[in-house]
Amino acid sequence: MIASETSHRQLAMATLAHAPENEIADLLSGIDLPEVEHLREPEQGLVMVRGRIGGDGRLFNFGEATISRAAVKLESGEVGFGYTLGRSRKKARLIALCDALIQSDIYREALEIKVLAPLRRRIDATRRQRAAETAATRVDFYTLVRGEG
Question: I want to staple 68 with a disulfide (CB 3.0 to 4.6 A). Which of 40, 46, 92, 147 is the partner?
């Protein structure tokens, strides 16, 4: 796999991680999906979340977070992995399916057009709206300079 394919998969996974599972499922329904073998049934677990502290940026264990993961294999042989924060087994399965589809020459374009592009547009619109709402509450502080000396 070349670097551009890897970065394309990473961007797709980041998009899917930020999207609601029902929206992913609805958009996937517009694609004629292949048969899927579940290599790893969706399961839940914990991961340690690490943070940085102090001026030197030393790592410390911040706490644990629940994640769900799944792995699937398409009938054409592509293997997809899905991870998501939280306890949504369905979302982990959907992300794994999308990961496998993005690797397939047959399904890559359909996934990009019918699933990923609409999700990116919606996520970008939500971010812009939040940024505008935040900017509306911005207070500019300034220092008054006295006219002396």
Answer: 92
